[in-house]
Design a protein that fits this description.
Shape: globular
Largest sheet: 7 strands, parallel
Helix content: 10-25%
Oligomer: single chain
């Protein structure tokens, strides 16, 4: 028997009623696919082992509520993790994650997520940030290049600002900032422009570069009244009025693949006015801001679905923020 592989099927024992497995601090290198037999499992802790991946069959654990795989060597999570509809706690901290599957956004009962210490993790799908029941979210000490313009309605604790590649903070995260927080480091995203393929902005008065979220291909200044493309309007309309599990298969047959991709990934955020809240996918009016009478020097940003919305917001908060001019690289 290989002692580095987790076993439960090599003996003739009925273990399908197991609800709790705690195997932290061993030398386990593999979880076998037949973990799917443990359909009543609610708690699985295999932290501090040598796991490099999770089996796709983990998605069959329909009753799983807590999954702890922290301090392993996992580089990717299986898309089937999105089938864990009862999952409430997920800890993948201190691994080697390079990406997070968009399907994680299907775990609608998640309350806590911990991705801390995944230094190779550069982005997380916006749908994950927007999970409706999420209370605690920790992505500190990762390699994040940006934060999306969306947060879950119930989020209370966000640990995301200790990422060396962040160039600005979306204003929806301002309530999570601590008074003692230092300004973001002056990071030069141009060093990675061929690798990350993100749109870059340059602010002359700040002498700094700023990353935009992946998917954004066109940004407009508040002073410019520019009509949005038919593509953006189409994606917004389908996402708002038609998207849902029932129509999923129908849309696959009727909608072009690129539009379907943007819909499934979800919007990068919503219009910053609050009363409008239109979803935004690849085009927006964009504001860079600094808070008046605030010595921290943190640069904030926000997005809008139209010039009118941007003007309305700025007229309302002009006494609190100073607008920073920028140019597209």
């Amino acid at each position: 028997m290989n002692l580095n592989v987790l076993h439960w099927s090599y003996r003739d024992l009925k273990m399908t009623n197991l609800k709790f497995i705690h195997l932290t601090g061993n030398l386990i290198e593999e979880i076998p696919p037949d973990i799917s037999c443990l359909i009543n499992l609610e708690f699985l802790d295999v932290s501090k082992n040598r796991l490099r991946e999770l089996p796709s069959t983990i998605g069959a654990l329909c009753n799983l509520k807590c999954l702890n795989v922290s301090e392993n060597e996992i580089s990717t999570l299986p898309r089937q993790i999105g089938y864990l509809r009862n999952l409430e706690g997920l800890d993948v901290s201190k691994n080697l994650l390079t990406c997070v599957p968009n399907e994680l956004g299907n775990c609608l009962n998640l309350l806590e997520i911990n991705f801390r210490g995944n230094h190779l993790l550069t982005e997380i799908p916006p749908r994950v940030y927007a999970l409706c029941k999420l209370i605690y979210f920790d992505v500190n000490n990762c390699g994040l290049s940006y934060l999306p313009y969306v947060v879950g309605a119930r989020l209370v604790h966000v640990r995301a600002f200790d990422n060396q590649k962040l160039t600005h903070i979306p204003i929806v995260y301002e309530k999570f900032l601590q008074p003692w927080m230092e300004p973001l480091p002056i990071y030069c995203p141009l060093l990675n422009i061929q690798r990350d393929h993100l749109v870059k902005l340059f602010a002359p008065t700040e002498n700094r570069w700023f990353n935009l979220p992946r998917g954004v291909v066109e940004v407009h200044k508040r002073t410019h009244r520019v009509p949005f493309s038919l593509f953006e309007l189409c994606v917004r309309s389908i996402y708002t009025n038609f998207w849902g599990p029932i129509l999923d298969r129908l849309l696959v047959e009727l909608v072009p693949r690129i539009i379907l991709y943007y819909i499934k990934m979800g919007p990068i955020g919503h219009c910053g006015t609050g009363y409008c809240s239109n979803p935004i996918f690849k085009e927006c009016h964009f504001l860079l801001l600094k808070k008046l009478q605030n010595p921290s020097g943190v640069v904030f940003s926000t997005i809008f679905c139209s010039k009118d919305c941007a003007d309305f917001w700025m007229s309302k908060f002009r006494h609190m923020y100073h607008e920073i001019d920028w140019e597209v690289y």
